[in-house]
């Protein structure tokens, strides 16, 4: 099959979140299965010269967008069996931040139009056009007409993946014609009209041939008003074409046996290196050297839906236990300031690393003992899978991908992968944290068994890629 993957970000070129990991990891696995896979993304200013020097300029055209005619250059780069196309337009993409601009609706309407021009620009017929999140939500909508005008799109089937339904691309209806270049017929409740606004994600859900999301549990949650941010009715109306497919991680990159970013390699059968990683983490973050005290870690954006209100509510009770704690991330000021104060209140026991640092995150995954993710909502989550690869036991709330990947520890059978709680309640979280800390101190054999179960769990993309290929095949048939 010829598969075109459209995304607003893609690792390792440019990344702000989990979408980039998926766009960077899934296509190479699909390509390795024998398919012609290509990825298209904007050529942002943030993409460095090290990558630009490897690109080849192909061609350029003018892309019509309502009354505009915008330049669209096309660059190409080959990597890991995948062809990457970069859409060049400095007016829209020569900005340091990827998102958050006043004209984001126009920027990504242009990108969506440009995506549909790529197959003709390179004379390559598409079987599957796989789009991701609101930034490419107009692609399935535009495809409804473009497939009859462009021969390379004639047999294309569209797949739209919801990575996080909280961000939907909702705008005033005035953008319909002036920005999106669509006529009034598209402004109806079975396409783009949502409470007298334009909702791009809603349009993609109705227009796409198939809709996926990033875990089976999240697919069910999206039909609940609590999680769907107003689109639960739209999801239920299209549930017949909704599939939840769990994301994977790059298991070669996140391998404690050969990861150069950690202090000492280790494996499920040889865990001595993890103790050295723990000592290194304590030194790096200013925690006291205490090999027998468990380190509780958070690596996350510091925002409400990640569950940080629960942590703040019982932070003193957590620190009353025999633990050390390290938090890495940036986000809402109230969380940042509380964690900074906690560092002063608990010197040598609490470390607030208010920053983004890939090397430090690797050190935390490898050196910590417990990984806390009390998310209010978590479509899939990659951090808990990465932590488990490094033998760091997760403590999570049972939501989305956390429920699908972290099975609760059973002290009677020894089965499970971590510690879980059901309701977004600080008391419940504190209870399971105490259970985890107690197991760490009281039963080293059981703890090592839990670590081994985590480190040997299969979080590769292989199974997930197989499910995507089954979906693609069904659509093409």
Describe, in short, the structure shown.
It is built from 20 helices and 18 strands. The protein has 477 residues and is of the alpha/beta class.
Task: Write a structural description.
With 477 residues, the chain is an alpha/beta fold. The chain has two domains: 2-248 and 461-476, Rossmann fold; 272-455, 3-Layer(aba) Sandwich (Rossmann fold). Helices cover 39% and strands 19% of the residues. The chain contains 20 helices and 18 strands. It has helices at 18-32, 49-52, 90-93, 104-122, 138-146, 175-178, 200-207, 216-221, 225-228, 232-237, 272-285, 308-313, 315-319, 333-345, 358-367, 383-389, 400-405, 426-442, 444-455, 462-476; strands at residues 2-6, 36-42, 56-65, 68-79, 82-88, 128-132, 157-162, 170-172, 193-194, 197-199, 210-213, 242-244, 295-299, 324-328, 350-353, 370-373, 393-397, 419-421. It has a nine-stranded mixed β-sheet, sandwiched between helices. Strand 14 (324-328), helix 14 and strand 15 (350-353) form a beta-alpha-beta unit. Helix 4 packs across helix 5 and helix 5 crosses helix 7. The chain is globular and about 70 Å long. The model has no long low-confidence stretch (mean pLDDT 96).
SSE topology:
Layout: E1 2-6, H1 18-32, E2 36-42, H2 49-52, E3 56-65, E4 68-79, E5 82-88, H3 90-93, H4 104-122, E6 128-132, H5 138-146, E7 157-162, E8 170-172, H6 175-178, E9 193-194, E10 197-199, H7 200-207, E11 210-213, H8 216-221, H9 225-228, H10 232-237, E12 242-244, H11 272-285, E13 295-299, H12 308-313, H13 315-319, E14 324-328, H14 333-345, E15 350-353, H15 358-367, E16 370-373, H16 383-389, E17 393-397, H17 400-405, E18 419-421, H18 426-442, H19 444-455, H20 462-476
Parallel strand pairs: 1-2, 1-6, 2-5, 6-7, 7-11, 11-12, 13-14, 13-16, 14-15, 16-17, 17-18
Antiparallel strand pairs: 3-4, 4-5, 8-10, 9-10
């Amino acid at each position: 099959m010829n598969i075109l993957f459209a995304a607003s970000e893609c690792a390792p070129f440019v990344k702000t979140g989990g979408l980039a990991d998926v766009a960077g990891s899934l296509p190479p696995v699909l390509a390795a299965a024998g398919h012609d896979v290509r990825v298209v993304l904007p050529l942002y200013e943030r993409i460095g010269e090290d990558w630009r020097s490897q690109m080849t300029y192909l061609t350029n055209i003018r892309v019509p967008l309502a009354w505009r005619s915008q330049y669209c250059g096309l660059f190409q780069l080959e990597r890991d069996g995948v062809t990457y196309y970069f859409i060049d337009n400095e007016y829209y993409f020569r900005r340091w931040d990827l998102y958050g601009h006043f004209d984001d609706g126009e920027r990504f309407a242009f990108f969506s139009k440009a995506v549909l021009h790529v197959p003709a620009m390179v004379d390559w017929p598409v079987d599957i056009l796989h789009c991701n999140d609101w930034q490419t939500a107009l692609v399935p909508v535009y495809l409804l007409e473009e497939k009859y005008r462009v021969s390379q799109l004639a047999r294309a089937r569209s797949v739209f993946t919801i990575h996080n339904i909280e961000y939907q691309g909702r705008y005033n209806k005035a953008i319909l014609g002036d920005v999106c270049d669509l006529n009034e017929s598209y402004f109806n409740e079975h396409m783009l009209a949502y409470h007298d606004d334009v909702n791009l994600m809603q349009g993609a859900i109705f227009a796409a041939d198939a809709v996926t999301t990033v875990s089976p549990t999240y697919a069910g949650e999206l039909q609940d008003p609590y999680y769907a941010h107003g689109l639960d009715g739209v999801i239920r109306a299209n549930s017949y074409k909704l599939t939840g497919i769990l994301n994977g991680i790059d298991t070669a990159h996140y391998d404690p046996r050969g990861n150069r970013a950690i202090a000492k390699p280790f494996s499920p059968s040889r865990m001595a290196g993890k103790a050295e990683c723990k000592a290194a983490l304590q030194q790096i973050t200013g925690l006291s050297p205490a090999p027998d005290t468990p380190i509780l870690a958070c690596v996350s954006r510091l925002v409400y839906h990640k569950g940080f209100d629960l942590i703040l509510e019982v932070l003193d009770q957590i620190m009353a236990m025999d633990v050390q704690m390290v938090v890495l991330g940036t986000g809402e000021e109230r969380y940042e300031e509380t964690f900074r104060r906690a560092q002063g209140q608990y010197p040598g026991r609490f470390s607030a690393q208010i920053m983004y640092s890939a090397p430090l995150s690797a050190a935390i995954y490898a050196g910590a003992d417990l990984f806390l993710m009390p998310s209010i909502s978590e479509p899939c989550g990659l951090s808990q899978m990465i932590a488990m690869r490094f033998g760091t036991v997760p403590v999570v709330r049972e939501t989305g991908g956390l429920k699908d990947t972290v099975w609760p520890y059973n002290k009677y059978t020894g089965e499970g992968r971590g510690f879980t709680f059901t309701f977004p309640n600080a008391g419940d979280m504190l209870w399971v944290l105490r259970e985890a800390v107690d197991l760490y101190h009281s039963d080293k054999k059981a703890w090592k068994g839990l670590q081994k179960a985590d480190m040997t769990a299969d979080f590769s993309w292989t199974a997930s890629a197989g499910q995507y290929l089954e979906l693609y095949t069904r659509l093409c048939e």
